[in-house]
Amino acid sequence: xxxxxxxxxxxxxxxxxxxxxxxxxxxxxxxNNQRKNLSTxxxxxxxxxxxxxxxxxxxxxxxxxxxxxxxxxxxKLMELFNEMLKEKDIDLNKLMDRFFGRDVHxxxxxxxxxxxxxxxxxxxxxxxxxxxxxKYDILHRKLIEFIPFRYQKKDxxxxxxxxxxxxxxxxxLKKHDGNEHNTATxxxxxxxxxxxxxxxxxxxxxxxxxxxxxxYKDVDRVYLTQHELDILHKKKFRLARLELVRDIxxxxxxxxLAYSDMAMLxxxxxxxxxxxxxWIITRRKKTNVRAAIPLLLEAxxxxxxxxxxxxxxxxxxxxFYAIQKFNAYLHEIAELCEINKNLTSHVGRRTFATTIALAxxxxxxxxxxILGHTTTKITxxxxxxxxxxxxxxxxxxxxxxxxxRK
Length: 406
Description:
Elements: E1 7-12, E2 23-31, E3 34-44, E4 49-50, E5 55-56, H1 61-87, H2 92-99, H3 109-122, H4 130-151, H5 163-175, H6 181-200, H7 226-234, H8 240-255, H9 259-264, E6 270-272, E7 278-283, E8 290-294, H10 297-307, H11 323-336, H12 345-357, H13 364-371, H14 376-382, H15 387-405
Protein backbone atom coordinates (compact mmCIF):
# COMPACT_ATOMS: atom_id res chain seq x y z
CA UNK A 1 0.00 0.00 0.00
CA UNK A 2 1.56 3.36 -1.02
CA UNK A 3 2.52 5.63 1.89
CA UNK A 4 3.02 9.39 1.96
CA UNK A 5 6.48 9.40 3.51
CA UNK A 6 8.45 10.85 0.61
CA UNK A 7 11.45 12.97 1.59
CA UNK A 8 12.69 15.85 -0.55
CA UNK A 9 16.15 17.07 0.38
CA UNK A 10 18.47 19.63 -1.17
CA UNK A 11 22.13 19.15 -0.24
CA UNK A 12 25.67 20.08 -1.25
CA UNK A 13 27.85 17.47 -2.94
CA UNK A 14 31.05 18.67 -1.23
CA UNK A 15 33.27 16.02 -2.79
CA UNK A 16 32.74 17.70 -6.19
CA UNK A 17 34.41 21.02 -5.36
CA UNK A 18 35.27 23.02 -8.51
CA UNK A 19 38.26 25.32 -9.15
CA UNK A 20 36.31 28.34 -7.89
CA UNK A 21 35.66 26.65 -4.57
CA UNK A 22 31.97 26.06 -5.36
CA UNK A 23 30.11 22.80 -4.93
CA UNK A 24 27.07 21.52 -6.84
CA UNK A 25 23.60 21.63 -5.31
CA UNK A 26 21.84 18.26 -5.50
CA UNK A 27 18.27 17.09 -5.03
CA UNK A 28 17.61 13.81 -3.22
CA UNK A 29 14.29 12.00 -3.26
CA UNK A 30 13.70 9.14 -0.83
CA UNK A 31 10.64 6.92 -0.79
CA ASN A 32 10.48 3.59 1.01
CA ASN A 33 13.63 1.78 -0.18
CA GLN A 34 14.14 3.96 -3.27
CA ARG A 35 16.54 6.88 -3.52
CA LYS A 36 17.28 9.26 -6.40
CA ASN A 37 20.05 11.87 -6.47
CA LEU A 38 19.94 14.51 -9.18
CA SER A 39 22.07 17.55 -9.91
CA THR A 40 20.13 20.85 -9.98
CA UNK A 41 22.72 22.54 -12.20
CA UNK A 42 23.46 25.18 -9.56
CA UNK A 43 26.86 25.68 -7.86
CA UNK A 44 27.34 27.69 -4.64
CA UNK A 45 30.03 28.36 -2.04
CA UNK A 46 29.61 26.01 0.96
CA UNK A 47 29.58 28.87 3.51
CA UNK A 48 26.49 30.36 1.83
CA UNK A 49 24.40 27.21 2.39
CA UNK A 50 22.02 26.89 5.34
CA UNK A 51 21.90 23.14 5.90
CA UNK A 52 19.11 23.33 8.49
CA UNK A 53 16.71 25.37 6.35
CA UNK A 54 17.91 23.85 3.07
CA UNK A 55 18.24 27.29 1.42
CA UNK A 56 20.93 29.73 0.30
CA UNK A 57 21.75 32.43 2.85
CA UNK A 58 21.24 36.10 2.09
CA UNK A 59 19.24 38.16 -0.35
CA UNK A 60 21.63 38.35 -3.30
CA UNK A 61 20.08 37.87 -6.72
CA UNK A 62 21.45 34.36 -7.17
CA UNK A 63 20.27 33.37 -3.65
CA UNK A 64 16.74 34.55 -4.38
CA UNK A 65 16.77 32.69 -7.74
CA UNK A 66 18.03 29.40 -6.25
CA UNK A 67 15.68 29.57 -3.25
CA UNK A 68 12.74 30.17 -5.58
CA UNK A 69 13.80 27.12 -7.59
CA UNK A 70 14.00 25.03 -4.41
CA UNK A 71 10.56 26.16 -3.24
CA UNK A 72 8.90 25.61 -6.65
CA UNK A 73 10.59 22.24 -7.12
CA UNK A 74 9.39 21.00 -3.73
CA UNK A 75 5.84 22.15 -4.48
CA LYS A 76 5.81 20.58 -7.96
CA LEU A 77 7.25 17.28 -6.72
CA MET A 78 4.70 17.08 -3.90
CA GLU A 79 1.88 17.78 -6.37
CA LEU A 80 3.06 15.02 -8.70
CA PHE A 81 3.66 12.66 -5.77
CA ASN A 82 0.09 13.20 -4.51
CA GLU A 83 -1.24 12.44 -8.01
CA MET A 84 0.69 9.17 -8.06
CA LEU A 85 -0.50 8.44 -4.52
CA LYS A 86 -4.10 8.64 -5.75
CA GLU A 87 -3.19 6.35 -8.67
CA LYS A 88 -1.62 3.91 -6.14
CA ASP A 89 1.40 3.59 -8.43
CA ILE A 90 4.44 5.34 -6.97
CA ASP A 91 7.88 4.99 -8.50
CA LEU A 92 10.66 7.56 -8.20
CA ASN A 93 11.78 7.04 -11.80
CA LYS A 94 8.24 7.74 -13.03
CA LEU A 95 8.01 10.72 -10.68
CA MET A 96 11.17 12.25 -12.16
CA ASP A 97 9.95 11.50 -15.70
CA ARG A 98 6.77 13.43 -14.96
CA PHE A 99 8.72 16.26 -13.35
CA PHE A 100 10.94 16.67 -16.41
CA GLY A 101 8.04 16.23 -18.84
CA ARG A 102 9.17 12.82 -19.97
CA ASP A 103 6.12 10.92 -18.79
CA VAL A 104 3.91 9.01 -21.22
CA HIS A 105 1.38 11.85 -21.32
CA UNK A 106 3.97 13.94 -23.19
CA UNK A 107 5.68 11.18 -25.10
CA UNK A 108 6.20 11.75 -28.80
CA UNK A 109 5.81 9.63 -31.89
CA UNK A 110 9.53 9.51 -32.66
CA UNK A 111 10.31 8.54 -29.07
CA UNK A 112 7.89 5.63 -29.37
CA UNK A 113 9.31 4.55 -32.75
CA UNK A 114 12.88 4.77 -31.42
CA UNK A 115 11.91 2.77 -28.32
CA UNK A 116 10.20 0.13 -30.48
CA UNK A 117 13.11 -0.11 -32.93
CA UNK A 118 15.71 -0.30 -30.16
CA UNK A 119 13.86 -3.19 -28.54
CA UNK A 120 13.35 -4.83 -31.96
CA UNK A 121 17.04 -4.53 -32.83
CA UNK A 122 18.12 -6.09 -29.51
CA UNK A 123 16.09 -9.20 -30.39
CA UNK A 124 17.52 -9.75 -33.88
CA UNK A 125 18.60 -13.34 -34.20
CA UNK A 126 16.27 -14.45 -31.41
CA UNK A 127 12.76 -13.32 -32.35
CA UNK A 128 13.34 -11.14 -35.41
CA UNK A 129 15.56 -10.78 -38.46
CA UNK A 130 17.81 -7.96 -39.66
CA UNK A 131 15.80 -7.56 -42.88
CA UNK A 132 12.56 -6.98 -40.94
CA UNK A 133 14.28 -4.49 -38.62
CA UNK A 134 15.53 -2.53 -41.62
CA LYS A 135 11.92 -1.90 -42.72
CA TYR A 136 11.16 -0.28 -39.36
CA ASP A 137 14.44 1.63 -39.48
CA ILE A 138 13.55 3.07 -42.89
CA LEU A 139 10.10 4.04 -41.55
CA HIS A 140 11.81 5.91 -38.69
CA ARG A 141 13.97 7.87 -41.14
CA LYS A 142 10.96 8.71 -43.28
CA LEU A 143 9.05 10.02 -40.24
CA ILE A 144 12.03 12.22 -39.28
CA GLU A 145 11.73 13.87 -42.72
CA PHE A 146 7.94 13.87 -42.94
CA ILE A 147 6.99 15.53 -39.62
CA PRO A 148 8.95 18.79 -40.23
CA PHE A 149 7.83 18.79 -43.88
CA ARG A 150 4.13 18.58 -43.00
CA TYR A 151 3.87 20.06 -39.51
CA GLN A 152 6.90 22.40 -39.33
CA LYS A 153 8.21 20.83 -36.12
CA LYS A 154 10.72 18.11 -35.29
CA ASP A 155 8.32 15.75 -33.54
CA UNK A 156 4.67 15.33 -32.59
CA UNK A 157 3.16 14.26 -29.28
CA UNK A 158 1.26 10.98 -29.26
CA UNK A 159 -1.69 12.74 -27.68
CA UNK A 160 -1.85 15.13 -30.69
CA UNK A 161 -1.99 12.38 -33.31
CA UNK A 162 -5.18 12.01 -35.34
CA UNK A 163 -6.26 9.74 -38.15
CA UNK A 164 -5.37 12.59 -40.54
CA UNK A 165 -1.70 11.94 -39.78
CA UNK A 166 -1.94 8.61 -41.61
CA UNK A 167 -3.66 10.19 -44.62
CA UNK A 168 -1.00 12.91 -44.76
CA UNK A 169 1.80 10.34 -44.49
CA UNK A 170 0.23 8.18 -47.19
CA UNK A 171 0.11 11.15 -49.57
CA UNK A 172 3.69 12.16 -48.68
CA LEU A 173 5.08 8.67 -49.31
CA LYS A 174 3.48 8.50 -52.74
CA LYS A 175 3.85 12.11 -53.90
CA HIS A 176 7.14 13.17 -52.29
CA ASP A 177 9.02 9.86 -52.06
CA GLY A 178 7.51 8.28 -55.17
CA ASN A 179 6.52 5.04 -53.43
CA GLU A 180 4.05 2.70 -55.06
CA HIS A 181 0.70 2.16 -53.34
CA ASN A 182 1.62 -1.21 -51.83
CA THR A 183 4.97 0.07 -50.56
CA ALA A 184 3.28 3.05 -48.87
CA THR A 185 0.65 0.71 -47.42
CA UNK A 186 3.38 -1.45 -45.88
CA UNK A 187 4.88 1.58 -44.11
CA UNK A 188 1.45 2.59 -42.80
CA UNK A 189 0.72 -0.91 -41.51
CA UNK A 190 4.09 -1.01 -39.73
CA UNK A 191 3.33 2.35 -38.10
CA UNK A 192 -0.03 1.01 -36.91
CA UNK A 193 1.80 -1.95 -35.35
CA UNK A 194 4.13 0.41 -33.49
CA UNK A 195 1.17 2.44 -32.14
CA UNK A 196 -0.47 -0.78 -30.99
CA UNK A 197 2.73 -1.60 -29.08
CA UNK A 198 2.49 1.87 -27.53
CA UNK A 199 -1.05 1.11 -26.38
CA UNK A 200 -0.02 -2.22 -24.86
CA UNK A 201 2.90 -0.59 -23.02
CA UNK A 202 0.84 2.33 -21.72
CA UNK A 203 2.38 5.09 -23.84
CA UNK A 204 -1.02 6.03 -25.21
CA UNK A 205 -4.54 5.04 -24.21
CA UNK A 206 -5.92 4.30 -27.68
CA UNK A 207 -4.38 4.24 -31.13
CA UNK A 208 -5.71 7.04 -33.33
CA UNK A 209 -4.82 4.88 -36.32
CA UNK A 210 -6.96 1.93 -35.28
CA UNK A 211 -9.71 2.61 -37.80
CA UNK A 212 -7.47 3.85 -40.62
CA UNK A 213 -7.74 1.35 -43.46
CA UNK A 214 -5.17 0.98 -46.23
CA UNK A 215 -5.32 -2.19 -48.29
CA TYR A 216 -2.90 -3.69 -50.77
CA LYS A 217 -3.81 -3.53 -54.44
CA ASP A 218 -3.61 -6.62 -56.59
CA VAL A 219 -0.59 -6.40 -58.86
CA ASP A 220 0.76 -8.58 -61.64
CA ARG A 221 3.16 -10.92 -59.90
CA VAL A 222 6.19 -11.51 -62.10
CA TYR A 223 7.35 -15.07 -62.73
CA LEU A 224 9.06 -16.86 -65.61
CA THR A 225 7.27 -19.18 -67.99
CA GLN A 226 8.76 -22.54 -68.94
CA HIS A 227 9.79 -21.05 -72.30
CA GLU A 228 11.69 -18.26 -70.56
CA LEU A 229 13.33 -20.75 -68.21
CA ASP A 230 14.52 -22.70 -71.25
CA ILE A 231 16.02 -19.53 -72.72
CA LEU A 232 17.93 -18.93 -69.48
CA HIS A 233 19.20 -22.52 -69.44
CA LYS A 234 20.55 -22.36 -72.98
CA LYS A 235 22.08 -18.88 -72.83
CA LYS A 236 25.88 -18.78 -73.00
CA PHE A 237 27.58 -15.97 -71.05
CA ARG A 238 31.07 -14.66 -71.63
CA LEU A 239 31.30 -13.25 -68.10
CA ALA A 240 31.70 -15.75 -65.25
CA ARG A 241 29.76 -13.54 -62.82
CA LEU A 242 26.68 -13.59 -65.06
CA GLU A 243 26.85 -17.34 -65.47
CA LEU A 244 27.08 -17.79 -61.69
CA VAL A 245 24.16 -15.43 -61.03
CA ARG A 246 22.09 -17.18 -63.72
CA ASP A 247 22.79 -20.56 -62.11
CA ILE A 248 21.97 -19.37 -58.59
CA UNK A 249 18.72 -17.88 -59.91
CA UNK A 250 17.85 -21.15 -61.67
CA UNK A 251 18.61 -23.04 -58.46
CA UNK A 252 16.13 -20.76 -56.75
CA UNK A 253 13.56 -21.48 -59.47
CA UNK A 254 13.90 -25.22 -58.80
CA UNK A 255 13.94 -25.07 -54.99
CA UNK A 256 11.79 -22.07 -54.06
CA LEU A 257 14.37 -20.86 -51.56
CA ALA A 258 14.57 -17.20 -50.55
CA TYR A 259 17.90 -15.58 -51.40
CA SER A 260 18.85 -15.12 -47.72
CA ASP A 261 18.18 -18.82 -47.11
CA MET A 262 20.22 -19.89 -50.16
CA ALA A 263 23.14 -17.76 -48.98
CA MET A 264 23.25 -19.75 -45.72
CA LEU A 265 23.22 -23.18 -47.39
CA UNK A 266 26.24 -25.43 -47.07
CA UNK A 267 26.90 -28.89 -48.43
CA UNK A 268 25.91 -30.12 -44.97
CA UNK A 269 22.33 -29.08 -45.74
CA UNK A 270 22.16 -31.66 -48.55
CA UNK A 271 21.10 -34.90 -46.86
CA UNK A 272 19.25 -38.11 -47.75
CA UNK A 273 15.51 -37.58 -47.45
CA UNK A 274 12.67 -39.86 -46.43
CA UNK A 275 12.59 -41.31 -49.98
CA UNK A 276 16.34 -41.89 -50.13
CA UNK A 277 16.88 -39.02 -52.57
CA UNK A 278 18.80 -35.83 -51.95
CA TRP A 279 16.96 -33.21 -49.92
CA ILE A 280 17.72 -29.73 -48.63
CA ILE A 281 16.94 -29.54 -44.93
CA THR A 282 17.19 -26.07 -43.43
CA ARG A 283 15.32 -23.46 -41.46
CA ARG A 284 14.06 -20.24 -42.96
CA LYS A 285 16.03 -17.25 -41.74
CA LYS A 286 12.93 -15.05 -41.57
CA THR A 287 10.53 -17.34 -39.69
CA ASN A 288 12.75 -20.15 -38.36
CA VAL A 289 10.24 -22.54 -39.94
CA ARG A 290 11.73 -25.87 -41.08
CA ALA A 291 11.99 -26.24 -44.85
CA ALA A 292 12.46 -29.74 -46.32
CA ILE A 293 12.93 -29.67 -50.09
CA PRO A 294 13.43 -32.75 -52.30
CA LEU A 295 15.94 -31.79 -54.98
CA LEU A 296 14.79 -31.85 -58.57
CA LEU A 297 17.25 -33.16 -61.15
CA GLU A 298 17.88 -29.63 -62.46
CA ALA A 299 18.87 -28.45 -58.95
CA UNK A 300 21.14 -31.46 -58.43
CA UNK A 301 22.92 -30.74 -61.71
CA UNK A 302 23.59 -27.14 -60.64
CA UNK A 303 25.09 -28.34 -57.34
CA UNK A 304 27.31 -30.82 -59.17
CA UNK A 305 28.47 -28.07 -61.52
CA UNK A 306 29.98 -26.16 -58.58
CA UNK A 307 30.81 -29.14 -56.36
CA UNK A 308 34.35 -29.90 -57.57
CA UNK A 309 34.65 -32.87 -55.23
CA UNK A 310 33.81 -30.92 -52.10
CA UNK A 311 33.84 -32.97 -48.88
CA UNK A 312 33.69 -30.08 -46.39
CA UNK A 313 30.09 -29.97 -45.13
CA UNK A 314 30.56 -26.37 -43.96
CA UNK A 315 31.43 -25.07 -47.43
CA UNK A 316 28.69 -22.84 -49.00
CA UNK A 317 26.89 -24.33 -52.01
CA UNK A 318 27.69 -21.28 -54.14
CA UNK A 319 29.63 -18.04 -53.96
CA PHE A 320 27.05 -15.37 -53.26
CA TYR A 321 26.89 -11.66 -54.05
CA ALA A 322 25.12 -9.06 -51.94
CA ILE A 323 21.43 -9.07 -52.83
CA GLN A 324 21.66 -5.62 -54.44
CA LYS A 325 24.42 -6.77 -56.81
CA PHE A 326 22.62 -10.04 -57.46
CA ASN A 327 19.46 -8.21 -58.56
CA ALA A 328 21.48 -5.75 -60.65
CA TYR A 329 23.15 -8.64 -62.49
CA LEU A 330 19.74 -10.27 -63.02
CA HIS A 331 18.58 -7.12 -64.82
CA GLU A 332 21.62 -7.41 -67.06
CA ILE A 333 20.86 -11.09 -67.71
CA ALA A 334 17.22 -10.32 -68.57
CA GLU A 335 18.38 -7.83 -71.22
CA LEU A 336 20.86 -10.29 -72.73
CA CYS A 337 18.20 -13.01 -72.85
CA GLU A 338 15.61 -10.54 -74.22
CA ILE A 339 13.24 -11.35 -71.36
CA ASN A 340 11.11 -8.26 -70.93
CA LYS A 341 10.51 -8.70 -67.21
CA ASN A 342 11.95 -7.12 -64.08
CA LEU A 343 14.04 -10.03 -62.84
CA THR A 344 14.78 -10.07 -59.12
CA SER A 345 15.57 -12.78 -56.62
CA HIS A 346 11.91 -12.89 -55.60
CA VAL A 347 10.92 -13.78 -59.17
CA GLY A 348 12.85 -17.03 -58.79
CA ARG A 349 10.89 -18.00 -55.70
CA ARG A 350 7.61 -17.14 -57.42
CA THR A 351 8.64 -19.05 -60.56
CA PHE A 352 9.09 -22.18 -58.47
CA ALA A 353 5.65 -21.81 -56.90
CA THR A 354 3.90 -21.05 -60.17
CA THR A 355 5.68 -22.57 -63.18
CA ILE A 356 7.51 -25.48 -61.57
CA ALA A 357 5.09 -26.58 -58.85
CA LEU A 358 1.50 -25.38 -59.34
CA ALA A 359 1.52 -25.76 -63.13
CA UNK A 360 2.63 -29.36 -62.73
CA UNK A 361 -0.13 -30.31 -60.35
CA UNK A 362 1.56 -29.80 -56.96
CA UNK A 363 -0.97 -28.81 -54.31
CA UNK A 364 -0.87 -25.49 -52.48
CA UNK A 365 -0.26 -27.14 -49.11
CA UNK A 366 2.85 -28.96 -50.38
CA UNK A 367 4.13 -25.78 -52.03
CA UNK A 368 3.59 -23.93 -48.75
CA UNK A 369 5.68 -26.48 -46.85
CA ILE A 370 8.50 -26.32 -49.38
CA LEU A 371 8.53 -22.51 -49.33
CA GLY A 372 8.61 -22.58 -45.52
CA HIS A 373 5.42 -20.57 -45.12
CA THR A 374 3.41 -20.64 -41.91
CA THR A 375 0.09 -20.54 -43.79
CA THR A 376 -1.18 -21.27 -47.31
CA LYS A 377 -2.61 -17.73 -47.43
CA ILE A 378 0.94 -16.47 -47.85
CA THR A 379 1.67 -19.13 -50.47
CA UNK A 380 -1.36 -18.07 -52.51
CA UNK A 381 0.41 -14.76 -53.16
CA UNK A 382 3.31 -16.64 -54.78
CA UNK A 383 1.53 -19.38 -56.68
CA UNK A 384 -0.23 -17.62 -59.53
CA UNK A 385 -2.75 -19.57 -61.58
CA UNK A 386 -1.26 -19.32 -65.06
CA UNK A 387 -3.07 -19.11 -68.39
CA UNK A 388 -1.61 -22.53 -69.21
CA UNK A 389 -3.09 -24.03 -66.06
CA UNK A 390 -6.48 -22.44 -66.82
CA UNK A 391 -6.31 -23.84 -70.35
CA UNK A 392 -5.49 -27.36 -69.11
CA UNK A 393 -8.24 -27.34 -66.51
CA UNK A 394 -10.78 -26.05 -69.03
CA UNK A 395 -9.78 -28.79 -71.49
CA UNK A 396 -10.51 -31.37 -68.77
CA UNK A 397 -13.84 -29.68 -68.06
CA UNK A 398 -14.78 -29.74 -71.78
CA UNK A 399 -14.05 -33.47 -71.97
CA UNK A 400 -16.15 -34.15 -68.87
CA UNK A 401 -19.05 -32.13 -70.23
CA UNK A 402 -18.82 -33.92 -73.61
CA UNK A 403 -19.04 -37.29 -71.84
CA UNK A 404 -22.21 -36.17 -70.05
CA ARG A 405 -23.83 -35.12 -73.30
CA LYS A 406 -23.36 -38.60 -74.79
